[in-house]
């Protein structure tokens, strides 16, 4: 079981010394962490989100904190809960969930409260945002042992996990075969809404290619703009596998989509059956041969999910 968020381990501690990454200590809320109480306090560009605060965090009034930047990407609680339910359907050998962009903690909290996972590893690069997430998890009553927080870059963590696990603190070394990764990356702001079809090659600061490269050896879920180019997503499917794409809706309108992407198995020298002989560059031409997307439908009234 991982380090608790209430512990005070840090790089200066003997146990953490020598590792490139270690579980984060409990960070202190900073001036960048805010709990707005009235609209008059709220910067104009986040007033829309503040108006939706109770659908974003139903316990907002209990003292939920966010940074101003975190408001743009935080997922409404009913959607986070539905994603947690949908990810729970993963193969039962999967016991660890990595949340690679924890933000203010909305998804991490939903995963931790789902009781599906032995442990959730939640990564956040910004100290103030991480402090908010840790604080919010406490507000929601998440048991401290459920979440191992990492203050750092999720790409560096995944690279070390795959290639140099000895560099990581033992609590951060997980078996990638028994892990599912959830990624809700920044999309470069709300500008995606002006595109009829959002080009995932141009997503900032991380495009689909960068995300895919980092995640492909694990089962993973990409949380993406609702108008994302589905053909680009389809090209991520390993040979013989399908990707399920779910539109997450509230009041009948999609908020965003999630792509459930199976891991690519390593190529064996013998090219054994069931293993992939050739990995096509998923970012190659968008001309579409045979997109491997699962198609089905579900009601979209209220909050819920709709597969496309
Ligand atoms: P939105 O872009 O504000 O559209 O966010 P909304 O709420 O439909 O507004 P409208 O004016 O178009 O009606 C939609 C959802 O996308 C939010 O609830 C967030 O969950 C998610 N979201 C938005 N952004 C900009 C990001 C982002 O950068 N990253 C991630 N991961 N999610 C985001």
From TrEMBL:
SUPFAM superfamilies: S-adenosyl-L-methionine-dependent methyltransferases (SSF53335)
Compositional bias annotation for Basic and acidic residues: 267-281
Residue ranges of the region described as Disordered: 1-21, 267-308
Gene3D superfamilies on file: Vaccinia Virus protein VP39
Molecular function GO labels: RNA cap trimethylguanosine synthase activity
InterPro entries named among the record's database cross-references: RNA_cap_Gua-N2-MeTrfase, SAM-dependent_MTases_sf
Protein name: Trimethylguanosine synthase
Lineage: Eukaryota, Fungi, Dikarya, Ascomycota, Pezizomycotina
């Amino acid at each position: 079981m991982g380090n608790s968020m209430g512990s005070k381990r840090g790089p200066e501690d003997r146990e953490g010394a020598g590792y490139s990454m270690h579980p984060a200590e409990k960070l202190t809320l900073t001036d960048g962490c805010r709990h707005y109480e009235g609209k008059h306090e709220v910067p104009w560009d986040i007033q829309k989100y503040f108006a939706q605060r109770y659908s974003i965090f139903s316990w907002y009034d209990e003292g939920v904190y966010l940074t101003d930047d975190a408001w743009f990407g935080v997922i409404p609680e009913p959607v986070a809960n539905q994603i947690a339910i949908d990810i729970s359907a993963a193969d039962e050998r999967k016991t660890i969930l990595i949340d690679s962009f924890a933000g203010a903690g909305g998804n991490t909290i939903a995963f931790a409260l789902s009781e599906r996972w032995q442990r959730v590893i939640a990564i956040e690069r910004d100290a103030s945002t991480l402090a908010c997430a840790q604080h919010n998890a406490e507000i929601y009553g998440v048991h401290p042992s459920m979440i191992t927080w990492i203050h750092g870059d999720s790409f560096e963590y995944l690279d070390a996990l795959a290639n140099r696990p000895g560099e990581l603190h033992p609590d951060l070394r997980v078996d990638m075969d028994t892990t599912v990764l959830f990624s809700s990356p920044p999309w470069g702001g709300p500008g995606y809404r002006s595109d009829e079809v959002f080009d995932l090659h141009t997503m900032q600061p991380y495009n689909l290619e960068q995300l895919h490269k980092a995640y492909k050896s694990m089962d993973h879920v990409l949380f993406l703009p609702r108008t994302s180019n589905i053909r680009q997503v389809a090209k991520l499917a390993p040979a013989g596998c399908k990707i399920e794409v779910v539109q997450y809706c509230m009041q009948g309108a999609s908020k965003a989509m999630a792509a459930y992407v199976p891991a690519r198995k390593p190529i064996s020298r013998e090219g054994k059956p069931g293993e992939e002989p050739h990995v096509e560059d998923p970012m190659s031409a968008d001309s579409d041969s045979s997109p491997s997307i699962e198609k089905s439908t579900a009601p979209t009234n209220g909050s819920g999910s709709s597969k496309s």
